[in-house]
Design a protein that fits this description.
The structure is a single chain. The longest helix is centred in the N-terminal third of the chain and has 22 residues. 37% of the residues lie in helices and 17% in strands. Strand 12 and strand 13 form a beta hairpin. The protein has nine helices and 14 strands. It has a domain of 211 residues: NAD(P)-binding Rossmann-like Domain (Rossmann fold), CATH 3.40.50.720. With 326 residues, it is α/β, with parallel strands linked by helices. The site of ligand G4F has 22 residues, from helix 5.
Length: 326
């Protein structure tokens, strides 16, 4: 988002990040010296800190990407997810309403809010049926944004974004986990070393994946309409984890017609000759799964003039290429 704003607008970016004793700023390292980029300490779960920051900075826009985004950890840290993904939104809305009501506000919503879906594709009218503490917190945030918009006339929106990936994706999310492992296994096989197979959970979950870079423009368009409205951003294409695995290995030279899925359930394996490339580890199964997500982003395409540029295959290849290069 910061890259996009620095390249396409003349705004000053005040970037808030939680203070850590050992910094984790790899994805923004290249921006630190930019005179239009200012990094400040900000903990969105601390109401006073949020209020003081908005009071001091008087932002024209406030974009909240500070949620905990890993669904898998939300069962072990449910309170933390409610505080960071829901209460934090309340603190931000209240501070904006009190000190800078002209500020345009964006909160990152999620297709996880649709959860145990009733129909496909899911549009903005699909009911919320979350399956995780993460999803429940995001639904709560969604209602808060709507209530503050309707009660106080704030320009506040929550885009509902389907999965968005890329070369800066965290390594515990399934796409990056796969592409990193494909790069590692490819190198280890070429070097004739022993290697550990990639371990995954549910291979049959289906997701609507896009390139995060494409979504940034959609978010900025959502923030700059005449009146505030929530939109879905999605590729409108759905693929299983299994297909992602096949395409990623295929691109690295393990042709799909020379590989084979063998066994079933927790004994299923993806084999290339005698080599096991992928095996199941039940520890990656979730207590409740969102089996299928497929978006319908027609209103964003028609009303905002937005559309994604990168399709599924290009995304897989871009991520594998990057990880092999690294
Ligand atoms: O990559 P994931 O962890 O992403 P998930 O849960 O769909 O959430 C992402 O997208 C949401 C939008 O829909 C965002 F709101 C959220 O913040 C995040 O960005 O898992 C995708 C699927 C799941 O069905 C999971 O069970 O992959 C399945 N999976 C199978 N094996 C695995 C694994 N997921 C992970 N992380 N690790 C595995 O080994």
């Amino acid at each position: 988002m910061a890259d996009y704003l620095l390249n396409n607008t003349d705004h000053l970016i005040v970037a808030g990040a939680r203070r850590l004793s050992v910094k984790n700023h790899k994805n923004i390292e290249h921006l630190i010296e930019n005179p239009r980029f200012k990094l400040i300490d900000l903990d969105v779960a601390d109401q006073l800190n949020v209020y003081d920051t908005i009071h001091k900075e008087q932002p024209d826009y406030f974009i909240n990407f500070a949620a905990n985004s890993f669904v898998g950890s939300s069962w072990t840290m449910p309170v933390n997810h409610m505080e960071t993904n829901a209460m934090a939104v309340l603190y931000q809305l209240e501070a904006i309403n009190k000190c800078q009501p002209k500020c345009r506000y964006y909160n990152a919503g999620s297709s996880e809010q649709f959860g145990n879906v009733n129909y496909a594709p899911q549009d903005i009218g699909h009911p919320f049926k979350p399956r995780s503490p993460y999803g429940a917190a995001k639904c709560s945030a969604h209602h808060l944004v709507k209530v503050w918009r309707e009660s106080f006339g704030l320009y506040a929106v929550q885009g509902i974004l389907f999965n968005h990936e890329g070369v800066r994706r965290g390594e515990e999310f399934v796409t990056r986990k796969i592409t990193k492992a494909v790069a590692r296994i490819t190198n280890e096989i070429l070097d004739l070393k022993d290697f550990k197979p990639l371990e995954l959970g549910n291979l049959d979950a289906k997701r609507d994946w896009s390139d995060a870079e494409d979504f940034i423009e959609g978010i900025w368009l959502m923030l700059n309409q005449e009146s505030p409205k929530d939109y879905v951003l999605s590729s409108n294409e759905m693929h299983s984890i299994r297909e992602f695995v096949e395409e990623a290995f295929n691109f690295a030279g393990f042709a799909t017609d020379q590989c084979e899925w063998k066994g079933c359930g927790i004994y299923e394996k993806y084999m290339h000759g005698d080599n096991t490339l992928v095996q199941i580890n039940p520890k990656f199964y979730r207590p409740a799964e969102v089996e299928l997500l497929l978006g319908d982003s027609t209103p964003a395409r028609e009303e905002l003039g937005w559309k994604p540029k990168t399709n599924f295959l290009e995304l897989v290849r871009k991520m594998v290429r990057n990880d092999i290069k690294q």
